[in-house]
Amino acid sequence: MEHTLRVLVRIDTKTSSACIEVRGCLVPENCGDLVGILRHTALLGAHLIVNLSRASHLDALALDELLARADEVPSQPVAGGHTTVSVQIPERLPVCLPRVPEH
């Protein structure tokens, strides 16, 4: 099964924040790609919110890796301090359902 990472990045210049919404699959094979997106977005000088509530699949190992690597995101100065990274995690980790072949 192919696990595709899909994200939507919304930037709010008024609050100096960026919401990175994961809508695809977050698995160990693509977690580094998400961290790269976080690093590039942080260069804008925005507080980062990673919203995992709409992901179609969250692998527990990938989630652990994301939480551990969030500290790698460079902190940039913003009004009143420095950028931060927060991660919103759903209560239950969703998993991909196998595809049903069409007849």
Task: Please give a structural write-up.
- The chain is of the alpha/beta class and 103 residues long.
- The protein is 24% helix and 28% strand.
- The protein has helices at residues 28-42, 60-69, and strands spanning 7-12, 17-22, 25-26, 47-51, 57-58, 77-78, 81-82, 85-88.
- The strands form three sheets. The protein has a four-stranded mixed β-sheet, with helices on one face. A two-stranded parallel ribbon has the order 3-5. The protein has a two-stranded antiparallel ribbon with strand order 6-7.
- A hairpin with a 2-residue loop joins strand 6 and strand 7.
- Helix 1 packs parallel to helix 2 (60-69).
- The protein is elongated and about 55 Å long.
- The mean pLDDT is 90.
- Please tell me what the overall shape is: elongated
Tally of individual helices: 2
Order of helices and strands: EEEHEEHEEE
The order of strands across the largest sheet is 1-2-4-8
Percent in helix: 10-25%
Spatial separation of the terminal alpha carbons: 20 Å
Largest sheet: 4 strands, mixed
Uncertain stretches: none
Strand tally, please? 8
Mean of pLDDT: 90
- What is the strand content? 25-35%
**Cα gyration radius (Å):** 15 Å
Structural class: alpha/beta
